[in-house]
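User: Fold this, then the next.

Assistant: Folding the first:
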Amino acid sequence: DFIRKLLGSIEENLHDKGHDDDAGKIVDTLKKAIDELRSDPQGTKSAASKPSAAKSKKAAPKKQGSKKSSKKSSKTIATDDQNGEMQFVASPELIKQFVTEGEELLESAEQSLLSLEHDSGNQETLSTAFRAFHSFKGNAGFLGYADLEAVSHQAETLLDTLRSIGAEGQGTAISLLLSVIDFLRGGLSALNEGNDPEISGKAGIVSLLSETIVSLGGTAPETPQALDTEDETEDDQDEPVEMEAESENNSGSEQFPERRSGIDRRTGDDGRSSGRRAADKINGQRQTIRVDIEKLDILMNLVGELVISEAMVSQNPDIKELNVPMDRFERSVLQLNKITRDLQDVTTSIRMIPLAGTFRKMIRLVRDLSQKVGKKIDLELIGEETEVDKTVIEQITDPLVHIIRNSIDHGLEGPEERLANNKSDTGKITLEARYVGGEVWIIINDDGKGLNREKILSRAIEKGLVDGDGLEMKDEDVWLMIFQPGFSTAEKITDVSGRGVGMDVVRRNIEKTRGKVEVKSDKGRGTSVILRIPLTLAIIDGMVVRIGETLLTVPIISIKESFQPTGDIINILMDGQEIVNIRDHLFPVVRLYEIFQLEPDSRELCDGILVMVENEGKAVCLFVDEVVGQQQVVIKGLSDYVGDLHTVSGCTIMGDGTISLILDIKGIIDKAEGEIKGLAMNQRMEIDSGAKVMETVEA
């Protein structure tokens, strides 16, 4: 209560003066409590609060904390009857918080170390890494995780040594510290799964760290497994100075722009002290809280149901049958629609997190792989602040890893080959994110040798993926062959790539988000892979169209235009395929009633509406009876009982309670393209030795 009072004073007055007497009384009370515990180590005299010996032995963790103790949910302190010391028992909630903050601290340390490779000797960056390890060590020691504490303490000491000697000898130390981070992450992963966070080979890691510290002129801790009390006290006394320096340094940092506020926007916490958070608050920074993702999922579902209910009210057939002026009702519906949309936008934005965390994980990947394959590679990050749905983040991490691995192993040339081709000896990979319409585009570009059309076609023909010689295939279609399961053009399998698994993972993960993958390549100049991902996965803007008595929903993002055709723009080819000429461009017509076996109002194109839709640069015109109007729709998945419908991506509930299928434009275009190719298998006449020879060819 007193500390809260001080924080309130700091917030209002920017100081905590005037409370010396109260502070003195509290200090005296605490000292008396400490003396009483030392004289009576068994605890208080209350029998109710004194745990039995059996309970205390079971509850109190050893140096490493058992799996059983980590499952405790209510106990916080117990007494160890063997030595009379107070032992801490962590609740599952506290362990979860430790893991989350530990991952953030290790991420901060890793990014700082990677920055040091390009800016060696930067004291600010060194201090950031030092503080991250120091905080991690303190948290691990508080919970009794000896392995994590011992290793991170040695790493902290190594960083402290680097701060004193400058840039000399940093390279080897940084590589070692990055390996230490991997070991610590392994411990956190084990702890998150309910196991002991033991580090395999801890003794060897600690020994290697100690040797490195000594070789750099530092003094390694003598007893890393049982940390010295005085050493901890000195570190804690130095902490306010470090915190103050961090606040000053972060305000001008250009290396990590999303952390300038001192708050990690991914989680709403900087993983450090409440003092920093209080300082941020005072400085007018944004305040954030942690929220369980399950609660956000429930909120999103409720907003989706609200959108459906709003449509049910505004489109209620009972109201439409009244045939009376309804100006006030319509104004109320418009206001309700506005509020519903605003609520949906806010709910969606709550789930949105910046791509910075995901992008920066690739820095380490590029560094390690470039050293493994012996290539010089620079990684440029653009648009890190771009935000996407948390679910999307989980789906794109693996695709990014596989694409970048392929770029490094297959795309970028070695230094000698690049110099021979009048390029810089250092290859470049650019990872960019930006908003395009209602999508987020994530672009992975390299300046390597590009894709080899002949090699890809040869392998595709060998695997039976292409009919004929494939010479008439567009480049875009050839490039998409690399996403086929088991497809690889690598001449030998390495531990980096070559098994034909990675790009298939890319395609499947992106399709889970209803996204698309595009590939562009220029021989000798490089390759670009574009991941096109929808901003939200739950609610979309759709255009409702009618065929007979059936309503279908077309995603607005796929619609280019809609119009009623006239006879002069309609053409029928010899094979029966209908096309329309729009501004000197020809587009095939797809009769939706044929695909879904519906009965339309009319089969004459001039009596209906054509809706032009586009996907991946391909466009067709959908023939419908009527365009009903635009509205927000909530995507509901189809049951497995229905099966895999390539022309439908889901369904939605309309205002009158009926079901409307949501069209999968990519599937419809692919289906139409296949039918057009089938119709184009026509009889072509050729003269051979004076005789007519019929040959079936693909146009």
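Now the next one, as you asked:
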Amino acid sequence: MIQSLLIANRGEIACRIIRTARELGIRTVAVYSDADARALHVREADEAVHIGPSPAAESYLVGEKIIAAAKETGAEAIHPGYGFLSENADFAQAVLDAGLIWVGPKPESIRAMGLKDAAKTLMNEAGVPTTPGYLGDPNDEKGQDVDFLAEQAEQIGYPVLIKAVAGGGGKGMRKVEAPEDFPDALQSCRREAKASFGNDIVLLEKWIESPRHIEVQVFGDSHGNVVHLFERDCSLQRRHQKVIEEAPAPGMDEETREQVCAAAVRAAKAVDYEGAGTIEFIADASDGLRADRIWFMEMNTRLQVEHPVTEEITGQDLVEWQLRVASGEELPKKQDELSIDGWAMEARLYAEDPASGFLPSTGPLDFLSFIDEKPGVFRVETGVEQGDSVSPFYDPMIAKLVARAPSRQDAIDDLQVMIRNSNIWPVKTNAGFLYRCLDSERFRDGDMTTAFIAEAGDSLIPNSEPADDVWAAAALRFQEVIETSADGDGSGSNSPWAVGSGIRLNAAPRREIALSSGGESRVLPFDEHGDDADGWLHHAVPMDRDNAWLVVDRGQPYRFTIARSEGVAGGAASDGAILSPMPGKIIAVSIAAGDTVAKGDKLVTLEAMKMEHSLTAPFDGTVAELNAEAGGQVSEGALLVQIEAEAE
């Protein structure tokens, strides 16, 4: 067994690997950038090495620095986690050439599956069905010409999907509905792929109208053994990025499961695969899940973000499997020793604001708590603690919330409990959005496709301001505190009962509670807010500062304080002011000063956190001021465009 391990990653996956390594008695070494100097994975590792500035391109993506750190600390092996260098065949080879153990597949296997076009060709030869489309020839320049690709798209039939051959995580992918949209979509796709992967070659696929995303966990060792650990369903996606994953897949019968998993094993054997990998399929679910309508999309030659749901239904530790295989051992289990037990579901909790188009939210995590973990029931995977910060330099995931239960419906209910009991402030999160996804009748019925979130639209977006029942819940929490306080009568300068009004015959003066949330204040009569009838939806926790309460309504948090006479200062920009939501680079400006724009028109495209974000017009009007220029860097809060509303 490996005795010392360097983890070439950060955040929750680094903490996850450290946990298993510690259980196996393996010494761990973390690496960190300037931004991660006090990160949780650094604090948890046995040793840590600084590898450079905050941008990943100058730290986590510099293989030479990571290998040097391994040698400096005497680490025997390097685990890449996922993302960063995990699927970089040249880095894997460099690790091996340095005399270190690579905890992952052989470099040639990574290369074989690293480019989607080459992988599909290989799968066709191995008898694994692939999605209809155009693969092209990477050595033929004409094959990447915009006019030629547009002709291929016409032959495939719209809608089509443009995919970067080196892409992943939803980056470098664009759905195109009509021929006139193809050139702009291709340009945007290539630009994003070049920035994210250094490769702008694309392929085309037929857009499947009722798509389900099904993937199979495979594992191989150096002794020729390959097994699968069944399937996962990752159909709930937003902009091709997974949101909620589950195992097994709803609606999958045993015959279809056998055929799909057997195809996944054939795919792994075709590249002499070792270690953890995932074969991803797309299914046309218009007539249920059928093996003849499920096609290979790609292989991820690494551990997946959603691996915990497979661990929960199989009872296996996949990181331990990785370490044992890398140490030269055979797989811990044979195929007939693996089975499905129960149902598991995972939600990706991100620092992002659904009400603002899911723009990332960065800053300090002044308040952060999750439901207590219970083995086999609740599981939290995170790389942050209260007091840490969400950095603008990396993926904004805060945690993965995982629930396991005997049935799918029970797993959904338990995951909602986890979301309701996640308390995060002031960073905005998608928790309320996740809760509403789980609450959807379509999702509960298993009737969802990868288009589910887009089709549901604003119905999944929680209110940015608290509703009446949330105000009532907050009032009740303050009342309980006052009634159990030392003086018992709510007196004192900080009392929310400071507002007194009215006289009732033969009764004490009527009391009212004065609270504030955001920019709004309300006075709530004591005898009208009553019981918290919907209390099971609300979770409230006291905050240390300002006598505040955080009331979480189905995952969406609202901070309440005692109302002050001076009111609450507002910080919102004036109407029509388009501000940069985060630091980034302007990559496109679609308007000029003086232009007339309609609500929803694209104004500026900002690149931040490796993704493109379109800033649009909030209403019909005229561009009165333009401070954005393509190629320019902007800071958070900078005024980019000022729109003046049309006169009525």
